[in-house]
Design a protein that fits this description.
With 197 residues, this protein is mainly alpha-helical. The chain has 12 helices and no strands. 62% of the residues lie in helices and 0% in strands. Bound molecules: iron/sulfur cluster (SF4). Iron/sulfur cluster (SF4) binds at residues 121, 124-125, 165-166, 170-172, 175, 177-178, 181, 183-184. Iron/sulfur cluster binds at residues 121, 124-125, 165-166, 170-172, 175, 177-178, 181, 183-184.
């Protein structure tokens, strides 16, 4: 759950480093996050960027779990999917992507994370005409069986593709999706750059 908060606007590598640091200092349980001084937490979160905001959000989530769930997030994560999502979304600083990341990766619940990377790859390839979060999520969830492992793997593959090839300035010439990608094919025609296997 902490990872879902920390990953906003940064790389997963930075998040892992920071989670390791929190673990090493024994500051990963809700009680310890509530107990640590705000400025001390900010210093630990500094490598993740937006560290003041993230420290506030992490503390808010931790104190919610302490107050409402006696520090055990499982009863929240095991609620009906819609109910759990609504509850997470009601917390300060938790948007759709964060709530869904918590449900999928912390709760192992079948909720697809329709992050920006997914929108970019889906719209460029022509899989979907819309980049709206809800539409992408509905499309995936209505196309696949509700299996968290499949959603997590699809998400990881899309993120990998987006970070390797489908960057803001895409590297279409070497991308494995180019033979069927609407954007890649249009680019090939325009620029005459052949697909490189
Ligand atoms: S071919 Fe280009 S636009 Fe299409 S998915 Fe690959 S990198 Fe992205």
């Amino acid at each position: 759950m902490a990872g879902a908060i920390l990953t906003q606007q940064t790389t997963w590598e930075k998040v892992e480093e920071t989670l390791d640091e929190l673990r090493e200092r024994n500051v990963l349980s809700p009680q310890s996050i509530v107990g640590i001084d705000q400025s001390a937490l900010e210093q630990i979160l500094r490598p993740c960027g937006f560290f003041r905001q993230k420290a506030r959000r992490l503390k808010a989530l931790a104190s919610y779990l302490v107050d409402r769930y006696d520090s055990d997030p499982r009863p929240l994560l095991e609620k009906g999917l819609d109910e759990a999502r609504e509850e997470l979304l009601s917390l300060k600083g938790v948007g759709e992507e964060t709530a869904d990341s918590i449900l999928l990766f912390a709760g192992n619940r079948p909720k697809f994370v329709a992050a920006t990377y997914v929108a970019r790859v889906f719209t460029r390839t022509g899989v979907l005409g819309s980049s709206r979060y809800g539409e992408i999520q509905r499309f995936v969830e209505s196309s696949l069986a509700p299996d968290p492992a499949v959603y997590a793997k699809l998400y990881a593959k899309i993120v990998e593709l987006a970070k390797t090839y489908c960057l803001r300035r895409p590297r279409c010439a070497a991308c494995p999706l180019r033979p069927t990608c609407a954007y890649g094919l249009a680019n090939e025609e325009k620029e005459g750059v052949p697909y490189q296997r």
